[in-house]
Amino acid sequence: MKLKLLFASIICSLVPFILVTSAFAEGETLNTGDTAWMIVATALVMVMTPAGLALFYAGMSRYKNLLNTFAMTFVAYCIASVIWMIWGYTLAFGPDNAGLIGGLENLFLSGITVNSLSGTIPTYVFILFQMTFAGITVALVLGSIVGRMKFSSWIVFTILWITFIYCPIAHWVWGGGWMSKMGALDFAGGNVVHINAGVAGLVLAIVVGKRVGYGKEAMFPSSVALTALGAALLWFGWFGFNAGSQLAADGIAGSAFLVTNTSAATGALSWMFAEWFYEKKPTLLGLASGAIAGLVSITPAAGFVDLQAALIIGLVAGAFGFFSVAVLKQKLGYDDSLDAFGVHGMCGMWGCLATGLFANPAITKGASGLFYGNPKQLWIQIVSMAATIVFTAIGTLAVIYVTRFVTGGLRVEKDDEISGLDNAIHGERAFETTMSGV
Questions:
Q1: Residue 372 above 90 pLDDT?
Q2: Eight-state DSSP code of residue 193
Q3: How many independent structural domains does the chain possess?
Q4: What is the chain's alpha carbon radius of gyration, rounded to the nearest angstrom?
């Protein structure tokens, strides 16, 4: 009897091992440390959109549009969350079709179970992590047209843009598409997130047109304090954004964490000193904007560069971002409300090129830039960047015209724009007292 009990206990103890081994084929094994880190990283990136970015953008918008800015950011994240689970994930990460788009095999996450693995983490965790990237990317576009686009048009635009612009580029870079096969380096979203969103924002801003009174009247931000708080939350969440993109709790993730913080701090200081020199005052808004510029620029390079490169990348990003916002926008005359193109588009381009310059094989084996004896990598980065710009510009223009056809127009009524979209669209007010400088 005792022998039978001993035998039964041994069999029972082996059952979990047998189940795990049979579920994770081809040598893939669940790593609980990696899984725990990726769940945390996913939560960090989630905080970036409906909290960090919403505060960052809302604080820069005029007080009469503060809640509308919040609502459009919030709804973009909600839409992305649903789209990604139904068809977005399979288009971006499904089986490759000619290097252009993923197949529909994983529609509604079909074929994926609780035992499915992506590397050493559950596929469900990987899916959710990637969903947060789709959510923040389309929300970044919003910064270009705050205060003048219809809420209904924004909803339609978000659905179409994620489907036809974001998903293909995500597949090209991260889903086994042609950019990946070419050898383009984009650790956490230089092409996929920042250049993509920045260029889309520029196109959308030009088509929608300038705000009423732009260039003729002062348009003060509602709360620089909110913007600074939003920047701090974005900075905090960016650790999950960049370090999480390693998909493992290892040395490369630690290095990405380190260079992310360094570039953000250097970018903030660089922007501040550039502004102090040209405008004679160091502003809190400049510090916050410089930190974001540094974060944007390090994003594609985070898993490939060392500390010295991060210092240079951040230093250039702050000055370049300030120049793009304070000089380039004024010269070209477009109305990018919250500088989505100037910060994300332009600094994303710098980050993409910097990856081709500074990628260090001592950080990630096989990733070598120009300064490490591989000039070809810089050319690959240029090609990938140019392809993203062209595809996003043309594709976004098509999405805009379809949106206009479906909704009957993109822009709010002039009277609503003047009075403010918080009350006109949502019937709400951010503040109970009347404020000057609208």
A1: yes
A2: I
A3: 1
A4: 23
